[in-house]
Structures are given as C-alpha cells and as structure tokens.
Amino acid sequence: MLRSGATVIQHIYDTHFAGVTEVAAMRRRWNRLAGLLDPALHARVAERLDEQLRCAEEWRDQINTYFLRKSGGPDRHGRRTH
C-alpha cells in the first residue's frame, strides 16, 4: 500500500491511463491552434502528437497487461486491460 492509499498495482494502472489522457488533452489543445500558426508547422506537430498518443496507448496496454498477468489484480475502476 502506498501513502496515497492505492496499491502498487493500482498506481501502475492509474498512472498509465493518466498518461494517455494527458497526451489526448495535449492533442486537443494543439488542434485549437489550427489557423493561428503556419499550416505546415501545425501539421508536423499534430503528426508527432498523433504518434505520441499511439505510443502512450500501446505502452499503457503493454505495461498494464504485464502487471495484470503477474499480479492477478484487476483495475478497481474496471478499465479494460488486455
């Protein structure tokens, strides 16, 4: 149990889901800047943020699946873990 009251496995799940949420929010904020920046620059950064989101989702799924299999402890929030 951690000081926060969460188990270690729950902390792992929570932080990896939060990472994906943060990248998705960053991508939405960047989309709001369309039309205010050079279109080529906006497109290049948007492409990189799309890749970052894809990687964050993949990492979340790989890590959470690994620890689910090792611990047998499901996510207390019922989020899908592969």
The helix/strand order is HH
Average pLDDT works out at: 96
* Gyration radius over CA: 16 Å
Largest sheet descriptor: none
Structural class: mainly alpha
Q: Number of domains in the coordinates?
A: 1
How many helical elements? 2
Q: What percent of residues are in strands?
A: under 5%
Helix content: 55-70%
Number of strands: 0
Structure summarized in a few sentences:
The chain is an all-alpha fold and 82 residues long. It has helices at residues 8-31, 39-71. It has one domain (9-71).
Q: Can you lay out the helices and strands and say which pair or pack?
A:
Elements: H1 8-31, H2 39-71
Can you describe what's shown?
- Helix 1 (8-31) packs antiparallel against helix 2 (39-71).
- The protein has 82 residues and is an all-alpha fold.
- 70% of the residues lie in helices and 0% in strands.
- The chain has one domain (9-71).
- The chain is elongated, with a radius of gyration of 16 Å.
Notable traits:
mainly alpha, 2 helices, elongated
